Amino acid sequence: MSSLKVAKALNNNVIIGMHPEHDEVVVIGKGIGFNRKPGDLMPLDSVEKLFILKSHEEQEQYKRLLPELDEKLIEVIGEVLHLVQLQAKKPLNEHILIALTDHIAFSINRHKQGITIHNPFLYETREIYPQEYKMAEQAVALIKDKMGVDLGEDEIGFVALHIYSAMTNQHISEVRKDSRLIADMVQVVETTLDYRIPLQSLDYSRLLTHLRFAIERVRRGEIVQEIYRLDKLLNEEYPEMYMLAWKLTKIMEKRLRKPVYPAEVSYLTMHLQRLSQRKEQGDNKP
C-alpha cells in the first residue's frame, strides 16, 4: 500500500507531505496534523483532500497565507474544493487552493465588518456559467452551515468565476475581463436598439451564451467557417443589425487583442435581428 510521508504539519488541519508520484503536496482534513511529526507515514487511501502545488512559489504563498487563517476555515475550504473536484470530474488548476482560500477569507472579514461589495455581473455569471454557479451556491451554503456566515448571492457569483477559472486553466483576471466584456457588449446592444432586454427572457440568455462562446472561440483562435451567401443576405436584409454585429466584433478584437473571424458577424446578426423583432413587437415576455 502506497504511503504519504509527512514533511511538516502546518497546523492541526493541514500538513505538507511527500507524495510518491507528485512530490510535495498539501493535505487538508480535520485534525489531520495533530501530533504529526516529520517522517510519519500515512496510507494514501486514508487521504481524502489532497492538493498538488507543483509550483514552489505557490507552495510558499500558501504557507505564508495559512497563519492568517482560522483553522476551521481551512477545513471548510478543503471541503469546498473537494466538492468542486468531485463534480468537475477533471483536474482543477492548482492555483484555486490559494486564490479561493484568500478570496473567501477576505470575504468573511468584510462580512464581519459589515462591508458589502455588489457584484455587477451576477446575472450574467449565473447565465453564462450555470454549472459553476451551482457549485458556488453549494460552496457558500457549506460556509454558512459550517462557519455561520452567510456571504450572500453576490459572493456566489464571485466564487463561480474562481471555479470556472480553475476548471478551464484560465486566470481569474481573464475570466473577470470576459464577464465585463460581455456586459459591456450587451449595454452597446441595448443602447443601439433603445431596448432594455428582459433579463429572464430566452433571447437574453441566448445572446449571453452566444457572446460567451464567441469569446472562447476567439481566445482559442478557432476558425469559424464563413458562409458567403448567408453573409451577403444578412447584410442586405438587415443592414442595421449587421453593422451592430460588426461593431461588437471590433470591440472583441480590441479588448481580446486577437482577430475575430468575419463569420462571427453573420451569426451575431441573427441574434440581434431576433432582439430587434422583439422590440418591434413589444414582446417583453420570456
Automatic annotation (TrEMBL):
InterPro entries: BglG_antiterminators, CAT_RNA-bd_dom, CAT_RNA-bd_dom_sf, PRD, PRD_sf
Source organism, top-level taxon: Bacteria
Keyword Repeat: yes
Record key words, sorted: Repeat
Keyword flag DNA damage: no
PROSITE patterns: PRD_2 (PS51372)
Pfam families from the UniProt entry: CAT_RBD, PRD
Domain PRD: start-end pairs: 68-173, 174-282
PANTHER family recorded: CRYPTIC BETA-GLUCOSIDE BGL OPERON ANTITERMINATOR (PTHR30185), PROTEIN GLCT (PTHR30185:SF16)
Protein name per Swiss-Prot or TrEMBL: PRD domain-containing protein
Native species: Paenibacillus ottowii
